[in-house]
């Protein structure tokens, strides 16, 4: 993994600018984005803002219970949002059609996806959010 971007913020007011920078700097990079960070680090908050800036017309919410949410951008483009936190077994992922989403050629954001490294495509981006004092630090790595 090679670190390609590092961003930091200490105020929720900065989230739109952080999301905009992520979108700009990840153009033409893999469409599978794996999100890691402790509970409450801001993964879902940042994903919501990224979806908003992509023009998602649906309500963006955590897929903690549904496991997969599909958000429409327009007639052809979608964003898939998957949460693997409650999934303990690879078979559960196959049961929900995990591979169809990962290989859909649409943006696919997976929270806690490193639990299943063997199931990830060869190319993906890893987003790691760390809390340090009153600051969040996001490092983005490319496989």
Q: Can you walk me through this structure?
A:
The protein is α/β, with parallel strands linked by helices and 143 residues long. It has one domain: P-loop containing nucleotide triphosphate hydrolases (Rossmann fold). It is 24% helix and 32% strand. The protein contains 4 helices and 7 strands, in the order E-H-E-H-E-E-H-H-E-E-E. A 7-stranded mixed sheet has the order 1-7-6-2-5-4-3, with helices on one face. Helix 1 crosses helix 2. It is globular, with a radius of gyration of 14 Å. It starts with a strand and ends with a strand. The mean pLDDT is 92.
SSE order: EHEHEEHHEEE
- For this structure, what is the CATH class? Alpha Beta
**Main pleated sheet:** 7 strands, mixed
CATH topology name: Rossmann fold
Q: How many structural domains are formed by the residues?
A: 1
Supply the CATH superfamily name.
P-loop containing nucleotide triphosphate hydrolases
How many runs of DSSP E, i.e. beta strands? 7
- Helix-and-strand structural type: alpha/beta
Assess the beta-strand content as a share of residues. 25-35%
Identify low-pLDDT runs. none
Which outline best applies?
globular
* Cα-atom radius of gyration: 14 Å
Summarize the entry for a quick read.
This protein is of the alpha/beta class.
Write the layout of secondary structure elements.
Layout: E1 2-9, H1 15-25, E2 32-37, H2 43-54, E3 68-72, E4 78-83, H3 90-95, H4 98-102, E5 107-111, E6 125-132, E7 135-142
Helix pairs in contact: 1-2
